[in-house]
Specification:
Strand content: 35-45%
Shape: globular
CATH architecture: Roll
Number of strands: 8
Order of helices and strands: EHEEEEHEEE
Number of domains: 1
Strand order of the largest sheet: 2-3-4-1-5-8-7-6
Oligomer: single chain
Helix content: 10-25%
Distance between the termini: 24 Å
CATH superfamily: 2,3-Dihydroxybiphenyl 1,2-Dioxygenase, domain 1
Length: 117
């Protein structure tokens, strides 16, 4: 095994066209109220996972993106790109010290990486 293992998929972001309508559906589905409820993002915590709704397909999202939680995002980016992934969105802070990045695998599937500080 090389590098450090991930902490698993704990975050899934869904692009939505109507944030209010999607919020109602996900609230019913998950059985909890959103923990973050802004015009640019609605986020839920349910069963140890974070489910986020991104209006307008944020950052060119066309389908849900799963985020693998990692202890060192730059090291994991280097590891997966050396193995053949392509950086789609470099690591950047999205608030509160949380860093995210996306890569594509050789088939074009988008994989998210997330590091909490």
């Amino acid at each position: 095994m090389t590098g450090s293992p991930t902490q698993g998929i704990k975050t899934v972001l869904h692009p939505v066209s109507d944030l209010a309508a999607a919020k109602a559906v996900y609230t019913a589905l998950l059985g909890v109220a959103p923990q973050a409820d802004e015009s640019y993002y609605v986020g839920f915590e349910a069963a140890g996972q974070h489910i986020g709704l991104v209006p307008g397909g944020g950052q060119g999202m066309t389908s849900p993106v799963t985020y693998w939680h990692v202890p060192d995002i730059e090291a994991k980016l280097a590891e997966v790109t050396a193995a053949g992934a392509t950086v789609k969105e470099p690591a950047h802070d999205v608030g509160g010290g949380r860093l995210v990045a996306t890569v594509t695998d050789p088939d074009g599937n988008v994989l998210g990486l997330l590091q909490d500080q």
